[in-house]
Amino acid sequence: MDRVVGQDPIAKTSSELEALRNIRTFSILSFFGFATDAVVAILALLSLPKLLTSFPTPSSAHTASFVSLGIAFSLGGLGIAAALLMILSFVFLRRGYRALKGVSKEFSSPYTGVNMFFIGLLVIILGSIIIIPLALFSTSAIALSIGIIAVLVIGSILAFIGEILALIVGPFRLGTYFNKSTFRTAGIMMIIGLFVPFISIAGVVLIYSTANSVLRITSQVI
Prior knowledge:
Helix content is 83%, strand content 0%. It is mainly α. The chain has one domain.
C-alpha cells in the first residue's frame, strides 16, 4: 500500500506491523548491547590506573596476576555478551527492514546495510579462523601481517558501511514512511554516536519509543 506524506502515523498492513515489532525488539536488544559496551568501557577506564600503578612484590605477584586475569576475563566476558546482543539485535532489524522492503523500495538500502554488516563480520571471523592456523606455519611475518590487516580492514569497512545504512539511513526512512520525526531524530543521534558512542543509546531508546508509539496508535485505531 502506497503511503501519502503527512498521513496518520499508523501501521496499515501486516508487513508494517511485523516490521515495527521486529524493530522494537531490535531496539531493546541493542540498548542492552550498547549499555554493556558502555559498562565495559567505564570498567576498563577505572581498572586501567590500578593495573598500571600496581607493581607486585615477589610475595604478592601470584595474587596480583590472579586479579589482573580476573579483570581481563570479566571485561572480555562482558564484551562478548555485548557483541552477541548486537548481532542478535541486527537479526531482528533485518527482519523488520525485509518486511518493509516488501511494501516500499525505500527500505532496500537499510536492508542491504544489515546484510553488509553481517558479511563484514563474516569476513573478519572467517578470515581470522583461516589466518591463525597459517600463522603457525608462516615464514613471512610481513606477509602474515598484511593479510591480517587486509582482512580486518575489508571486514570493518563492510560492517561500518552496513551500520550507516541500517542505523542512520534506516531511521530517516522510517521517519518519512511513518511520518514520525522522532525516528529521524534517532537517526541524527546515531550520526553523533559515530563520534560519541554513548549517544547511540539515546538513539535506540528513541527508536523503541517511536515504534512502540506507532504500534499503540495502530492498536487503538484497529
